Amino acid sequence: MRGLYLVLATAILSPLHAVSVSVDVIASQNPHPAVQVKSRAVSPNVTSSLQHRDVPGQKAVFMHVILIFKFSLTLINAFQFDVDVFGYTFDNWVRDLTTIKAAGIDAVALNIGKANDWQIDQVSTAYDAAASVGISTFISFDYSSFPCDTNLTISYFNSNKDKPAQFKVDGVPMISSFLGLCLGTDGWQSIKNQGAYLMPFIEVSDAQDLQVGRPWGFLQHWHCWGCAWPQGNAPKTTDDDNWYLSNLGAGRFATTVSAWLYVHYPGNNRYLRGDDHLLATRWEQLIGLRSSLRFVEYATWNDFGESHYVAPTTSGNQPAGTTWVNGFPHTAWLDMSKYYIQYFKSGSAPSVTTESVYFWLRPNPHSIQATGDSVGQPTGWDWARDSLYAVVFCRTTGGSCSATLKVGNTSQSYSNLQPGPNKLELPLDGNSFGTVTVQVFRDGGKVIDDTPSANTFQYTNSAVTYNFNAFVGSATASICG
Ligand SMILES: *[C@@H]1O[C@H](CO)[C@@H](O)[C@H](O)[C@H]1NC(C)=O
Ligand SMILES: *[C@@H]1O[C@H](CO)[C@@H](O)[C@H](O)[C@H]1NC(C)=O
Ligand SMILES: *[C@@H]1O[C@H](CO)[C@@H](O)[C@H](O)[C@H]1NC(C)=O
């Protein structure tokens, strides 16, 4: 029962419900997926058939957007966390959805928590704005705060499913969730009977129950929330994806991609390693799995509290007590994802017409001791690697491509880069601090030379508060070839 206990404990303690709960669900249910696949009797046909057949239907990439959760930590203190789009106007939605659409995203998953009037009004506004922008939407019920009520779920679903922006799978309107075991198989079956295409993340305790013919076999899709992040001190692999795929079968499994997870509140204080170029590596993994996958969800647009946002840090509200977001832009991660989104959907590598570079790093060495932080060092601090990560995109045709990365007085050059994305890492030894410089060369001529100013970002050896969030920058060659 440790898994369930963790779910409940984290749901109660976490100001930011979503990832924190799910990550624990996955980690506790499935600590060694590869071993479990071997030890349980899974038909060898299930896995082998996945490699060869492309799942039918058009592929789509979703963006998870959080409308609100108000979360009172009354047990600890009288703190209330209010995020994200409270007070959003139609124009605010148009602005955000236009950016999301421009990245190649097909639909947004509108995460709704508490059932109240302003929130259902925001759902309506979002659907209307989406229709005007030309992007689709569906509701993702968040049962860590939405009432565990099948009829209420159905009424929210029914009042939106016929709107023009509603995302449909082969004509059937989609609905998704974060959690929802509490509705039971009967509850979810009634929702399906209303004409819904189900893609929930339900915290089942045994993935074999998702197999066709088992209790949850009627789900059209099941969505792995926690599969986006490595759950320990090792790079992200696809072991967990493959474990769920082997139970669900190709075309019933949906999964997630994300760049980062750092949260730093009293009672919820942890870092999941974003090392090994997590975002680029995860996209490569999903492209590798594409014959079995129809849907992938990006986590998230605006969860500032857990640091996996790609929205501008000024979009909407941050939860009270969030000290690690301002000055740490992530918008370049969404821009970088465009290439991979197109690749995932089309199955072929997009051509790169000019050089660009995306780069990120944390502000301090992982072993830093903050001088004025009562929350303390986050768990997972010792999993972090001190490096500047960069992905350099070189032109598909023509010329040699090389790059130089620099932090303080540590620098390294990388030659003979390949056409398309190149993952580069500059290890930092703890003796070199200061500004970051990235340079890219075409045929020996410098086409990118970018140094964010010392006021914008510096890698430093002192901190008042802990910050394991990433500063993300980018630059593009102005000379097109
Ligand atoms: C695998 O599937 C094929 C046809 O789909 C079937 O003939 C064969 O018996 C199956 N093998 C096993 C081990 O289930
Ligand atoms: C849910 O709706 C059904 C059908 O309208 C109704 O029979 C049932 O009593 C409702 N349940 C609750 C708990 O309101
Ligand atoms: C780099 O900077 C550090 C201090 O930040 C200094 O101790 C070290 O000597 C410098 N190395 C070089 C090669 O200048």
UniProtKB/TrEMBL annotation:
Residues 1-18 form the signal peptide. Pfam families: Glyco_hydro_71. The keyword Transcription regulation does not apply. Keywords: Signal. GO terms for molecular function: glucan endo-1,3-alpha-glucosidase activity. Gene3D superfamilies: Glycosidases (3.20.20.80). The keyword Acetylation does not apply. This is Glycoside hydrolase family 71 protein. It comes from Marasmius oreades.
